[in-house]
Amino acid sequence: MSLNIGLLGCGTIGYQVALELISKKFENLNLKKILVKDSKKIRENIDKSLFTTKAEEILQDPNIDLIVEVLGNEQPALDYVLTAINQKKHVVTANKELMAKHGKKIFSLALEQGVHVQMEAAVAGGIPVINTVQNDLKANHITEIIGILNGTTNYILSEMKGGEEFEEALKQAQEKGYAEPDPTNDLEGYDSKYKISILASLAFRKYISPDSVSCVGIRSISKKDFDLAKEMGFSIKLLGRAKLLNDKSLSINVSPYLISLDNPLSQVDGVLNAVEIKGDLVGELMLIGAGAGPKPTASSILGDILTIKNKGHKVFLPYNCKESFVITDKNISKFYLRLEVNDEKGVIRDIGCVLAENGLSIEAIVQKKEIDSACLTLITHEIEEALFFSSLKSVEKLSSVKKISSNFRVL
Ligand SMILES: NC(=O)c1ccc[n+]([C@@H]2O[C@H](COP(=O)([O-])OP(=O)(O)OC[C@H]3O[C@@H](n4cnc5c(N)ncnc54)[C@H](OP(=O)(O)O)[C@@H]3O)[C@@H](O)[C@H]2O)c1
C-alpha cells in the first residue's frame, strides 16, 4: 500500500519530516503538499511547488490519504484534524495539547470514519513510550507511570543540581535554545500535565482530562532545596505521576519530587526524558532517551506513518471515551518540608505537636542557623496526601513559623 501525505506545518519538526520523506528512504510514502504560512520563505532542499498556504488544498484533496499535523497549539490544529478525519484521511500528530484536551473527540470521530490516528511524538519526543504502553504492554495490568516528561525543566534542574540558581539556569536554557522565550508552559508544568494525562489514558484505558491533573511547576525550587536534598541523599526532579489506587480511582499529578540518589530516575539529567512503567507481568520498566529535537521527533512521526501503512482497515479506540476515573488525593506519600522559623527554644516541639495532631510523624529533620532565623527541613513518614496538605495550614498558623519555603513529595 502506498500513502500520499499532506504535511501541516514546516517548522522545526515539519522541516525534518519533509526532508526524510523527500529523501525517498521510505518506499511508497509520497509527500504531496506542505502547508506553510509563507510559501516564499526559503527552505533548503524542498521544492517550492510542494508549498501551499491554503489548508483546503490538503484537507479537501481526495488523493491525500494521510496528514501529519506539526503546527502545534490547539487551533487551527483541531479544526484541521477533524476536517481531515471527516474526509477519511489518517492522522499523525505530535501535538500533546491537542491530544490531551481533545483526544476523546478525535479518536471517536476516527472510529466512526474508519481512519487511524497516531501520536507517538506527542509524548517524550523520540522515546517510543506510547506504542510501548498501547501495544507492547497490552497483556499487563499497568498500575503506575512516572515520567520526566519535559526536557527544558529537566535541564534547568540538572544545572541547579550542579550549583546554579534558578534564574541563571533558565537563562542558559534559553541561550541554548532549550527553553522558549516565554517558558511558562514548561516551568509551570502544563506541558508535563498534557503528557501524563495522555499516558495515563492509554495505560489505564479510560480518558483522563488534563484538567484533572494537579499541577505544580519548578519555580518554587531553590538551590537551597538542592543542597539540603543532597545532604539527605536525594535529588529533585519534576515528575508526572499517575497511580491507580483501585479500579475506580486514580492519583495523578505533576510536581517536583525528591528522588533517592540510588533511584536511576535521579540520574537522568540534561534535556533527556525518562518514563518508568509498572505492570503486573513486566515488573518495572524504564525508557530513557531524547524527549525532543527534530530527528528523534521525526523518528516517532515516521514510525507512526509506517505503522498506519501496515495496519490495514481495523480501527480501535485506544481508551474508553465514555467512562473515566475518580481523581483523588488519597495517595500515600512521604513529604519534604522546608520551613523558615524563629531561632528559639521549643520550635521543633511545637511543629512536631501540630504535625502529630494531624497524624503526621517525622522521619528525618535538619536544622540550620541563618542570620535572623533558622531553616528547618523535615522528611515525613508516609501520609495520605490530602492530610499533609491540610496540616500545612496548621503549621503556617504557628507563631514560630515565619514561612513555609517549600514542600515536595518524596518518591
Ligand atoms: N520541537 C520539538 O522538539 C518537539 C518534540 C515533540 C513534539 N513537538 C510538537 O511538534 C509540533 C511542532 O513543533 P515545532 O517545534 O516544529 O514548532 P514550530 O517550529 O513552531 O513549527 C510550527 C510551524 O507551524 C507553522 N504554522 C502554525 N500555524 C500555522 C497555520 N495556521 N498555517 C500554516 N503554518 C502554520 C508555523 O509557522 P510560523 O513559524 O510562521 O508561525 C511553524 O513553522 C508541536 O505540537 C510540538 O509540541 C515538538
Overview features:
12-stranded mixed beta sheet; Rossmann fold; 411 residues; Dihydrodipicolinate Reductase, domain 2; 35% helix; single chain; elongated; binds NADP nicotinamide-adenine-dinucleotide phosphate; 6-stranded parallel beta sheet; Alpha-Beta Plaits
Beta-strand residue percentage: 25-35%
* Cα separation of the termini: 47 Å
Q: Write the CATH fold name of the largest domain.
A: Dihydrodipicolinate Reductase, domain 2
CATH architecture field of the largest domain: 2-Layer Sandwich
Cα shape: elongated
Helicity range? 25-40%
Q: Write down the domain tally.
A: 3
Describe the model.
- The structure is a single chain.
- The strands form 2 sheets. Strands 7, 8, 9, 10, 11, 12, 13, 14, 15, 16, 17 and 18 form a 12-stranded mixed sheet that branches.
- The termini are far apart.
- 35% of the residues lie in helices and 27% in strands.
- It folds into 3 domains: 3-118 and 296-311, Rossmann fold; 135-290, Dihydrodipicolinate Reductase, domain 2 (2-Layer Sandwich), CATH 3.30.360.10; 332-410, 2-Layer Sandwich (Alpha-Beta Plaits), CATH 3.30.70.
- Helix 1 (12-22) crosses helix 11 (294-311) and helix 6 crosses helix 7.
- Helix 4 (96-113) links the parallel strand 5 (90-93) and strand 6 (117-118).
- It has helices at residues 12-22, 56-59, 77-86, 96-113, 129-136, 151-161, 166-175, 184-187, 190-204, 223-231, 294-311, 347-357, 385-397; strands at 3-8, 29-35, 51-52, 66-69, 90-93, 117-118, 142-148, 214-215, 234-244, 249-260, 272-279, 283-290, 326-327, 332-341, 362-369, 374-380, 383-384, 401-410.
- It contains 13 helices and 18 strands.
- The protein has 411 residues and is an alpha/beta fold.
